From TrEMBL, chain A:
This is CoA-transferase subunit beta. Belongs to the 3-oxoacid CoA-transferase subunit B family. It comes from Kribbella capetownensis. The lineage of its organism: Bacteria, Bacillati, Actinomycetota, Actinomycetes, Propionibacteriales. The keyword Transferase applies. SMART domains: CoA_trans. The keyword Chloroplast does not apply. It comes from the Bacteria.
TrEMBL record, chain B:
Pfam families: CoA_trans. GO terms for molecular function: CoA-transferase activity. Keywords: Transferase. It comes from the Bacteria. Belongs to the 3-oxoacid CoA-transferase subunit B family. This is CoA transferase subunit A. It comes from Kribbella capetownensis. SMART domains: CoA_trans.
Amino acid sequence: MRKQDTAEWNSADMMNVAAARELRDGDVCLVGVGPPNLAANLARRTHAPNCRLVYESGAIDAKPRRLPLSIGDDDLAATATAVVSVPEMFNYWVGAGRIDVGFLGAAQIDRFGNINTTVIGEHSDPKTRLPGAGGAPEIAAAAGRVIVIVKQSPRTFVEQVDFVTSVGYGPSGRERQAPGAGPTLVITDHGVLEPDPQTNELTLTRLHPGVTVEQAREATGWPLKVADSIKSVEPPSEVELTALHRLRNREAVDA
Amino acid sequence: MPSPVPLSEAIAAHVHDGDTVALEGFTHLIPFAAAHEIARQGRRHLTLVRMTPDLVYDQLIGLGVADELVFSYGGNPGVGSLHRLRDAVEKHWPHRLVVHEHSHAGLANAYVAGAARLPFAVLRGYRGTDLEEQRDIISRVTCPFTGEELAAVKAVNPDVTVIHAQLADRDGNVMLWGITGVQREAVLAAERAIVTVEEVVDEFPEHTGAVILPNWVLSAVSVVPGGAWPSYAAGYSVRDNDFYQQWDAISRDRTAFLQWAKDNGLPAAQEEVTAHA
């Protein structure tokens, strides 16, 4: 075992809970499929009931009663304050800077938060074809802040990404030219990384319960920078775990 | 004026070998039945355009219908990879697939420019990404008023766009609602447009946020109830999430995929499984 899992929760739960805690009540949050969907809906069911969920399919202020299985679920449109077209979503809402928090995943991420979700290998003849960009490049550029949720491993945390799909802080950490603040948090199954205030290099600042600095280093494909005073993340609470399990089981919010 | 025609006639008349074809519908209202009819009629060498290829293009790509793909996100939503798309790109099965890829914002705007019959669209995006290296579809332009450098995307103008909608009226006007995605733009960007609908009504109901497409921008309307399955039509059906799950196993394996094609009467370019490249 690389790290400690308890009977009550595992490292994936911890990652989702840690991500949910970063949303503030009232944040306008752009939600994609997978962990971000879980984290944002968890936040709404715990400490941030007024967190506004925006789905790139066009649903604004969606209040899903069950965890949506795709970003185009009927429940999203049915419970949204407004449903807009995809061009409107990207031009008037995402591009115009109306999103406070964007969540992104990554197949590869480098030390300056640049993300690859396109290909492993050459673009014209890839070894592995990944899904591609989706909404990520513009979310990375225009959201007020970006939270990356990704499991940490040397295959994912790499010296150099094979393809830059979404820009973090640029090749040397100083090239970012975008309205948003960029990836202010990278939440993994090991802990939390934040960009160094001077260099923008991702720095391990928090560890999940039971994880050591050494384990985090081993899960990183570059010499990982570690903060002088590293904090411990609180384990998931009873309330958070209950809400998380009910979401995963797709129980209705008022069931 | 398009009065309802059988889907087979609509596809035969308007979708030709070598065409650039967009089948749109963002998770909702994906025109699966029309896609299967295109495959059934044995179309080849298509350039397929779609923001989210989804299962519908995974199927067409596996059947060997497409030579090129223009897209922005190629996954099975909430499940994983599109294995036929991956096999075509990575292993050239059933043949090589050339990809041109955008972000969602880029491709949505390329349709917007196409609908407006403008040569390109402007957005604040792509800067610093490797997507910019596809200079034939993504470039930069300087704002003549502020000097700001912005991204430019080449307009997309399909030969034919196909969508699924909830309703047509007796005159062949079309109405869709719920998540309406990029369908209005995709239809107006195209030379020809085919719409499959759940049903024909005497008069459209009131629906907040509905998109209505006048009959004179459409080439053909066909009545195909359930034509969006396994995606859905709000008010008529729900998304068949189980099929999206099952597709993962069907599509992962060439033999299982070809069996699926055979079972559904869809001719595959490559009838036999060939050894991995």
